[in-house]
């Protein structure tokens, strides 16, 4: 897309709160929806589709609450369907609830595919057009901006283009100011979407805005949305992080930067683009979903470099292996270390950790140690804190906060239906004091973790805020059965930052212990380094 198109206004229509909430595993409370709506408004999307007030009490409550909220940048949209057959628009409860929401924009969907008209609605083609016309006219007559979603439009156009076009023209004549072409099944290819969009736009009055709504069943929702814009669409629907039914909706976290940074629409959300990753992460957090590491633009791995040749090139010219500056979308470059690393990985990674610059001998020593340990099953690209501790040892900058004299873990089950009990006892030497503590836990690792913290907290009270956030176990050599090596990854945090550590051993308890030790040692170093600054 050429830069001269940057002056053409685009409308970003977010449907995270409606279509996105239909994703498996996603359920937003009213409070959740209020928080996300606030963030979307601050970010600056054109429309926020809040839900379907005729379908459930939660959405009714959301729209009721939103009556007392003044949005600064966005318009609130309520979603619903056309009237039912043999029911007048003014008597249709669904349409009345759309008006009662007091949303200034109403989006209704109607069928554009004769398959649905005949087999799903079981009405005649003319009856379907009457339902669309009556509904749009009724809502427009009550002063609402009407957006018409032509459901299954591309499938309908492929089967019977004249009827699909009749659906759009009926909606426009009845008062819809925006008509949205929906790839509801997510099965169309970019070439099909581009051709049909051009044909539609050439046949629709120029004052009518044509939009695009894509699903991701063929992994093409973003591509289809972008080619629709190239073909003249000016209203783009999607969701944050691609939430949506089945395989999801078009991901606005990919669409927005592509439009702004690659297609000449520079003014598009330019003041908030740098907060895109923050928005993406916040919506995942509210949805209680783990962020997708490999998500383009916003994922942790989006600008992560592992291969030695890549790291060397990025060090010299960042754009040699980065399609944009990661800071433009609020992300950052990450250098990974592994058995594939080269010397530049080590130089950049130690600098990232604010460690002293290594001389060539130390680099070789650390690189050799990493390659050997990764050959044994360690994984430092997912365990930055363990890398930090290893680098300190090579730099002779490590210290002993304690020494282990021993530990014992007991797991007991008394009876078939009885709960499993775990207890750990630990003996450590801290500052020449022999400390013996015991604790019970939900499992052997939890019990060991509690006993360990109990032993250290008296001497290092700064670790009281450290909590274990995640615990992952992977069997490395399945052919050895229960004697196989086990890798344990632990994620810890203190409310301000998170870090990960790794342990490897044939014994899962010992592997867990190694990762636990690294976690608390890293926390102590971190606290000390902060105090020093």
Detailed description of the structure:
The chain is built from 17 helices and 16 strands. It has 533 residues and is α/β, with parallel strands linked by helices. The protein has four domains: 10-287, Aldolase class I (TIM Barrel, Alpha-Beta Barrel), CATH 3.20.20; 304-394, no CATH class; 409-459; 462-533, Double Stranded RNA Binding Domain (2-Layer Sandwich), CATH 3.30.160. The protein has an eight-stranded parallel beta barrel, surrounded by nine helices. A three-stranded antiparallel sheet has the order 11-12-13, with helices on one face. Strands 14-15-16 form a three-stranded antiparallel sheet. Helix 1 packs antiparallel against helix 11, helix 6 (153-159) packs across helix 7 and helix 15 packs across helix 17. Mean pLDDT is 90; it is low at 1-7.
SSE topology sketch:
Layout: E1 11-14, H1 30-43, E2 47-51, H2 57-66, E3 75-81, H3 93-100, E4 105-111, H4 114-121, H5 125-141, E5 145-151, H6 153-159, H7 161-173, E6 178-183, H8 190-203, E7 209-214, H9 221-230, E8 235-238, H10 252-262, H11 276-287, E9 304-305, H12 308-316, E10 334-335, H13 343-352, H14 360-375, H15 384-394, E11 403-413, E12 420-430, E13 433-441, H16 444-457, E14 467-475, E15 486-493, E16 498-505, H17 508-532
Parallel strand pairs: 1-2, 1-8, 2-3, 3-4, 4-5, 5-6, 6-7, 7-8, 9-10
Antiparallel strand pairs: 11-12, 12-13, 14-15, 15-16
């Amino acid at each position: 897309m050429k830069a001269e198109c940057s002056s053409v206004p685009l409308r970003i229509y977010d449907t995270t709160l409606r279509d996105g909430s239909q994703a498996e595993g996603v359920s937003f409370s009213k409070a959740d929806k209020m928080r996300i709506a606030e963030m979307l408004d601050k970010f600056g999307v054109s429309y926020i589709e809040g839900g379907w007030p005729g379908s459930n009490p939660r959405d009714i409550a959301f729209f009721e609450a939103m009556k007392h909220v003044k949005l600064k940048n966005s318009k609130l949209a309520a979603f619903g369907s056309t009237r039912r057959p043999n029911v007048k628009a003014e008597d249709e409860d669904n349409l009345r609830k759309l008006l009662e929401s007091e949303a200034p924009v109403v989006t209704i969907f109607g069928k554009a595919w004769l398959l649905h008209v005949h087999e799903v609605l079981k009405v005649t083609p003319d009856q379907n057009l009457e339902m669309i016309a009556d509904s749009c006219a009724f809502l427009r007559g009550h002063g609402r901006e009407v957006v018409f979603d032509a459901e299954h439009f591309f499938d309908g156009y492929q089967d019977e283009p004249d009827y699909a076009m009749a659906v759009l023209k009926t909606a426009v004549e009845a008062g819809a100011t925006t008509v949205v072409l929906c790839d509801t099944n997510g099965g169309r290819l970019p070439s099909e979407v581009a051709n049909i969009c051009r044909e539609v736009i050439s046949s629709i009055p120029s004052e009518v805005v044509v939009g695009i709504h894509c699903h991701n069943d063929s992994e093409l929702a973003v591509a289809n949305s972008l080619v629709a814009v190239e073909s003249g669409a000016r209203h783009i629907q999607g969701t944050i992080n691609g939430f949506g039914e089945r395989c999801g909706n078009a991901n606005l976290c990919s669409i927005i930067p592509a439009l702004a940074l690659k297609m000449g629409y520079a003014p598009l959300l330019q003041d908030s683009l740098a907060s895109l990753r923050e928005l993406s992460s916040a919506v995942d957090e509210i949805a209680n979903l783990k962020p997708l590491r490999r998500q383009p633009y916003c994922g942790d791995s989006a600008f992560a470099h592992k291969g030695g040749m890549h790291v060397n090139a990025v060090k010299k010219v960042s754009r040699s292996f980065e399609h944009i500056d990661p800071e433009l979308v609020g992300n950052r470059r990450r250098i990974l270390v592994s058995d594939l690393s080269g010397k530049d990985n080590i130089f950049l990674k130690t600098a990232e950790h604010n460690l002293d610059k290594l001389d060539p001998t130390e680099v070789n020593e650390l690189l050799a140690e990493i390659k050997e340990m990764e050959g044994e099953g360690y994984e430092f690209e997912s365990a930055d804190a363990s890398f930090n501790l290893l680098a300190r040892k090579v730099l002779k900058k490590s210290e002993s906060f304690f020494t282990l004299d021993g530990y014992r873990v007991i797991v007991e089950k008394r009876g078939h239906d009885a709960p499993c009990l775990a207890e750990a006892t630990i003996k450590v030497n801290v500052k020449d004091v022999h400390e013996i503590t015991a604790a019970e836990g939900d499992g052997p690792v939890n019990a060991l973790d509690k006993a360990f913290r109990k032993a250290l907290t008296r001497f290092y009270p700064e670790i009281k805020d450290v909590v274990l956030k995640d615990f992952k176990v992977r069997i490395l050599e399945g052919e050895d059965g229960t004697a196989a090596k086990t890798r344990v990854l632990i994620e810890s945090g203190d409310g301000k930052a998170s870090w990960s550590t790794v342990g490897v051993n044939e014994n899962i308890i010992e592997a867990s212990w190694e990762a636990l030790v690294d976690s608390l040692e890293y926390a102590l170093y971190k606290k000390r380094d902060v105090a020093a600054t």
